[in-house]
């Protein structure tokens, strides 16, 4: 049924298909639907119902994870427009951005090597600010101006930054573990 | 609570019928069983009034098995056949267990999971744990016998949140072997959060710090409007109070200049170390007195400060996963409203202190750290069994603790499902052939967050066969990884390009098949075939009753979703099942149960759609009102 179909994550939660998202409304709808379909509600039901419950609950989790995470949400919105952000445009990343990436990477490595937890925390905050700026940018591109090619570029940048965030987390984990 | 009214298809058709369900905390050191009685969760005691059952099993030559205090009393005299802390061995191979050289057992390495040679034969950790669970099941049945006259309908069994798939599967197998119907495997910190949250009407973000006898878990949960949502979990499946005992044991051995200690004396000194550790939680020094089998007499005094110093690194080892969980949840220390302490080892003042310093607030201790997990499990069991009153329901959303991935070229791991994904969760991955005419492909599934396969836990290796021969890269094999609400994984695969669809379902290699469990049961009944048959029949009859009840209830609520032909065919299958269930052919009953399942599949799907629509429309009404 379409309501639960893969193409209808926003429809599943009864929300407008925009990047700018009412997170509280998403959370409420998610919980309400999970309350109806979660396997804990079907422990004494027939096998058919238990299986259906697990499938539905899995789909709802997938939809929620996709919409909750800004990077996945943007990718999903682009896919809805028929654009695969990984392959659609072959434009190389701007040289300036790539240089910045290298600088980030060096800074993370340096802080990790000198076991500088405070520096890693600082980098993490800087990264968060940069992400926020790009979220605003992509929100405009997706929701207002409908510049999907530009949005795909922004999304690729976001993916780079997300990877940096993971690297900072990994470095912290090594230092704290 | 919101105004939303949703149908409860899983609920009992007879609202007044109370199903008997228990929560079981299968601990490293102690185990407990609890139930909800008159709306209040209580721990069930044994005849002597003990609530804790020491998780110790002793095998004797004559075949008798001692469990609990009786086994504990013999542990120094018969260390080889008296298994303590068996939980550390669940789903583990020999190389996975730390300090295994200090264990007095005769280990047998077996693929996937080690075994122990005892005077009563070679035993797996699953069988040993099942002995503990059997005692708890009997305790529950005896104490519930007077009530409602029914039998035990099921149990929620707790596991450390950081347990991997192998350890979870082993626990579930042990419960099945003990004759329990497992309603759900529940993470220990989540169980504690239920008990704490419902007791205190808590709202907001809470951390649960659970340091048990052999495992450490840290879970971050968001509690709001009747939903317990785990945001992140972390831990160390091989760190607990036992390790504190071990440090003190080493200190004793060093001070007393002991070199070779016999298994019996090791056991004795570990017990003395544990007693001293517990004493030091309330006193500034403890005396350690012991007479060894060698004739040596130990008489030492350990100061609290010395003990804290020698175990400082152990406490520090718990703080790293704590920070990691916070980071994974995207939260800072100041976002955490309270820290709930669980597990006997959290009684140690220096643990409390370290946690308090990290979170910059005094930890919460208002529930008994030994009992809170069992109580939470009992509350959840009561809900899952369908005993909740409307308005009392809540929802539990838990996560997978470790990433699932597959091996790629060079022994590297490609993550398929990241840690802290809310369960149930599934991800599909597409694979292709790399040689012309290739008809088979090996897939290696691992669990863990490290980059190298060798640093992760191997869960399953399987081969996809019967791929139609095609040019390299032409075949499309879609492999789906599914983790269910118990945190257990299954894998299925499908080749679809050629129109030939091969589908396999893979169970992890270390899990027991139903046949193996039946065999083990047979062995334990010592070839009493009738018992085995009676049990199989009873199981199928219970399944049939459940099926009939659930289907009839669904028909009463939503028959309008079916055409009259569909209704008729379902009713016919149900009638056939009822007839067969009155007989004694368990295979025939099982086959008919499967037929009913098949017949009701589209109905189940339509009902699910309806309840989702109701949930959403209910929400709209609720938000208009607020």
Structural features, described:
The complex is a heterodimer of chains A (177) and B (626). Chain A has 2 domains: 2-68, DnaJ domain (Helix Hairpins, Orthogonal Bundle); 95-176, Up-down Bundle (Monooxygenase). The longest helix of chain A has 29 residues, at 148-176. In chain A, helix 2 runs antiparallel to helix 3 and helix 5 (95-113) packs parallel to helix 7 (148-176). With 177 residues, chain A is mostly helical. Chain A is globular. Helix content of chain A is 73%, strand content 0%. The model of chain A is unreliable at 1-6 (pLDDT under 50). Chain B has 626 residues and is of the alpha+beta class. Chain B has 4 domains: 20-198 and 370-389, Nucleotidyltransferase, domain 5 (2-Layer Sandwich), CATH 3.30.420; 241-312, Actin, Chain A, domain 4, CATH 3.90.640.10; 404-511, Substrate Binding Domain Of DNAk, Chain A, domain 1 (Sandwich); 525-625, Substrate Binding Domain Of Dnak, Chain:A, Domain 2, CATH 1.20.1270.10. Chain B is 37% helix and 25% strand. Chain B has 14 helices and 27 strands. In chain B, strand 25 and strand 26 form a beta hairpin. In chain B, helix 5 (241-255) packs across helix 6 (263-279) and helix 8 runs parallel beside helix 9. The longest helix of chain B is centred in the C-terminal third of the chain and has 40 residues, at 586-625. The model of chain B is unreliable at 1-16 and 620-626 (pLDDT under 50). Chains A and B meet through helix 2, helix 3 and helix 7 of A and helix 8, strand 19, helix 12 and helix 14 of B.
């Amino acid at each position: 049924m379409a309501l639960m179909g893969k193409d209808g994550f926003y429809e599943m939660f009864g929300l407008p298909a925009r990047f700018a998202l009412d997170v509280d409304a998403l959370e409420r709808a998610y919980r309400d639907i999970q309350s109806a379909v979660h396997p804990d509600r079907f422990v004494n039901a027939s096998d058919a119902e238990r299986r259906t419950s697990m499938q539905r609950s899995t789909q709802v989790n997938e939809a929620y994870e996709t919409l909750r995470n800004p990077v996945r949400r943007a990718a999903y919105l682009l896919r809805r427009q028929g654009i695969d952000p990984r392959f659609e445009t072959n434009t190389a990343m701007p040289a300036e951005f790539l240089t910045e990436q290298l600088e980030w990477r060096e800074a993370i490595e340096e802080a990790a090597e000198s076991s500088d937890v405070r520096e890693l925390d600082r980098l993490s905050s800087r990264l968060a600010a940069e992400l926020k700026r790009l979220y605003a940018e992509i929100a405009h591109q997706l929701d207002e101006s409908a510049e999907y090619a530009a949005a795909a570029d922004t999304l690729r940048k976001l993916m780079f930054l997300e990877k940096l965030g993971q690297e900072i987390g990994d470095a912290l984990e090594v230092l704290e573990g | 609570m919101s105004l939303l009214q949703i149908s409860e298809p899983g609920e009992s058709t007879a609202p007044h019928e109370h199903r008997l369900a228990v929560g079981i905390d299968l601990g490293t050191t102690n185990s407990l069983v609890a139930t909800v009685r008159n709306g209040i969760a209580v721990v069930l005691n044994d005849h002597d009034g003990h609530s804790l059952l020491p998780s110790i099993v002793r095998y004797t030559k004559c075949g008798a098995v001692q469990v609990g205090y009786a086994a504990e009393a013999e542990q120094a005299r018969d260390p080889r056949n008296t298994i303590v802390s068996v939980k550390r061995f669940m789903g583990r191979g020999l190389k996975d267990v730390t300090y295994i050289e200090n264990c007095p057992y005769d280990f047998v390495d077996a693929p996937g999971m080690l075994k122990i040679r005892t005077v009563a034969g070679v035993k797996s950790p699953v069988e040993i744990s099942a002995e503990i669970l059997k005692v708890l099941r009997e305790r529950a049945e005896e104490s519930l016998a007077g009530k409602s006259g029914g039998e035990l309908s099921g149990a929620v069994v707790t596991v450390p949140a950081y347990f991997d798939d192998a350890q979870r599967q082993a626990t579930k197998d042990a419960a099945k072997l003990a004759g329990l119907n497992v309603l759900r495997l529940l993470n220990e910190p989540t169980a504690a959060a239920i008990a704490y949250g419902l007791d205190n009407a808590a709202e907001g973000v809470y951390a649960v710090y659970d340091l048990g006898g052999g495992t450490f878990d840290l879970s971050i949960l968001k509690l709001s409007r009747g939903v317990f949502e785990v945001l992140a979990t972390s831990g160390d499946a091989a760190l607990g109070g036992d390790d504190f005992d071990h440090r003190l044991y080493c200190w004793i051995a060093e001070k007393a200049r002991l070199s070779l200690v016999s298994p019996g004396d090791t056991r004795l000194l570990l017990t003395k170390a544990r007693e001293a550790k517990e004493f030091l939680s309330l006193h500034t020094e403890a005396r350690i007195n012991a007479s060894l089998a060698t004739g040596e007499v130990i008489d030492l005094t350990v100061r609290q400060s010395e003990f804290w110093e020698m175990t400082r690194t152990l406490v520090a080892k718990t703080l790293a996963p704590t920070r990691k969980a916070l980071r994974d949840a995207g939260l800072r220390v100041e976002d955490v409203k309270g820290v709930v302490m669980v597990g006997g080892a959290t009684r140690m003042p220096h643990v409390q202190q370290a946690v308090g310093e990290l979170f910059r607030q005094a930890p919460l201790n208002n529930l008994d750290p030994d009992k809170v997990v069992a109580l939470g499990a009992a509350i959840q069991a009561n809900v899952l069994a369908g005993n909740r009153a409307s308005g009392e329901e809540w929802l539990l959303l838990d996560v997978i603790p470790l990433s699932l991935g597959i091996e790629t070229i060079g022994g590297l791991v490609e993550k398929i499902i990241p840690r802290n994904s809310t369960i149930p969760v599934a991800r599909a991955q597409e694979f292709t052939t790399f040689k012309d005419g290739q008809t088979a492909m090996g897939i290696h599934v691992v669990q863990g967050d490290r980059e190298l396969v060798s640093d992760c836990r191997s869960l399953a290796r399987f081969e996809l066969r019967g791929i139609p021969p095609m040019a390299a890269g032409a075949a499309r094999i879609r492999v789906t990884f599914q983790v269910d609400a118990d945190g257990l994984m299954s894998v299925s695969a499908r080749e679809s390009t050629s129109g030939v669809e091969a589908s396999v379902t893979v169970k992890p290699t270390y899990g027991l098949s139903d046949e193996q469990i039946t065999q083990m049961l047979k062995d334990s009944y010592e070839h009493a075939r009738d018992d085995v048959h009676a049990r199989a029949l009873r199981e199928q009859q219970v399944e049939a009753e459940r099926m009939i009840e659930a289907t009839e209830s669904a028909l009463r609520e939503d028959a309008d979703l079916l055409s009259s032909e569909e209704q008729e065919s379902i009713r016919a299958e149900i009638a056939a099942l009822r007839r067969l269930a009155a007989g004694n052919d368990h295979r025939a009953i099982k086959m008919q149960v499967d037929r009913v399942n098949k017949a009701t599949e589209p109905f189940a799907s339509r009902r699910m759609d309806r309840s989702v629509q109701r949930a959403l429309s209910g929400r709209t009404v609720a938000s208009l009102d607020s």
